[in-house]
Amino acid sequence: MLCSHCQKNEATHTLEDEGGKPLSLCDECFERLGAAAGYFGSDPGFLVTFLQPKEDEGHACPVCGTALADYARTGLLGCAACYETFREQLRPTVRRIHGKTIHTGKHPLGDGKLYELLDERKRLRGELERAVREKRMKDAERLNRDIRDISRMLYYDDFGGEE
Length: 163
Prior knowledge:
mainly alpha, two-stranded antiparallel sheet
């Protein structure tokens, strides 16, 4: 019996998908997919749905030529342009794995107030420079006061500084 994933090698391992249908995998596919199964528990249905070919198997990346069927078979994309080319097909998989599809960046644990204040102070400094260049002194004074207020909050009030 051939591997139901790659259709090339002899199947040596058998799993069941969500519907109880047997899924036969060769050693290579089982080794590659078995590591993913460790993250998602013993539910092989995840692997089946993650790697099933989509209906648009003929679609290929214009840069590297990787077809959607290649991605479905290997779980790997060929280049950075593949992410844009297969955006709609990848979105459900990325959402299922990561829980979201928009990168929000990394911040240390906490409520993020410190980073919001730092970002606001940086934005205000840019506005202050523009106001000084354009000789808008009243705006520059107001912006300078706002920057000092934020700096006080950062270094003395809320974040453990000394008074």
